Amino acid sequence: xxxxxxxxxxxxxxxxxxxxxxxxxxxxxxxxxxxxxxxxxxxxxxxxxxxxxxxxxxxxxxxxxxxxxxxxxxxxxxxxxxxxxxxxxxxxxxxxxxxxxxxxxxxxxxxxxxxxxxxxxxxxxxxxxxxxxxxxxxxxxxxxxxxxxxxxxxxxxxxxxxxxxxxxxxxxxxxxxxxxxxxxxxxxxxxxxxxxxxxxxxxxxxxxxxxxxxxxxxxxxxxxxxxxxxxxxxxxxxxxxxxxxxxxxxxxxxxxxxxxxxxxxxxxxxxxxxxxxxxxxxxxxxxxxxxxxxxxxxxxxxxxxxxxxxxxxxxxxxxxxxxxxxxxxxxxxxxxxxxxxxxxxxxxxxxxxxxxxxxxxxxxx
Length: 365
Known about the structure:
five-stranded antiparallel sheet
């Protein structure tokens, strides 16, 4: 599908992020202030969860009808990173895209970004609609609830990767629960949390361990980078992608607060690679997992073997693969973010050879 560049007249921009702590008597008319950007996930009734990693919390924004774009759906935009940068008065190199999520009602795309780098970066939430209108959402005017996360890593801006930035690496909402992946400040750092919504309190989470076949050892410090909820034999599981690149399943029933569990590694998908994003879709009566990666393209993985796949227990050296099979999708390159646009298409943010990021709709393979 060809890209459709848009003119400046098609864009509406209204910047509204406030970087101060909210007063104790916050009302529905005074929305949240975010310290840092992070992953997104949609919940019921167009509630949008956004992770504020710098602030160690999850904010549930009540978008409502007022935040829907004038036109349902999402149009493609060539150079979405440069377009956003120009509207925010900066260069594309100063824009970091954290996540992409599609509204289940309007099918508008919501994009979490940061303007600037490091401690001074400003979090921004944008919406793209079906008429190519791009708007920066005034979140400080939205009703919201929030929940603080316990035992998160301490901030270390001098580190190669600030551990606080991995407090939340991905989220997904299913049947009244928000599942949260990330790191803690504990010895067994990798965590999966299950939090009820509407929010009450966040528990300490479950420490998760995996057999990392490419490394030939058990590991507890690497976070889940992306995951999807998926039922296997009538039981809800989380299918999780890790750095370098194990694919692991966790039974949700095992996610007890304070427990330590070992997931089942159902595939090794190749080393020197980080998974970025994943979705599950149905095509021709079969379910597939579609996963974007930093170094190994977009993988199409049939889910039919997930339930019966024995857990890997032996090393897989030299960049080899093992476990459930996959194919690399030709033509899908540079994909950094993806979500399901409808039953037949995914919306992706992909970079070309020049480093430009495009917002594009692609047919599900």
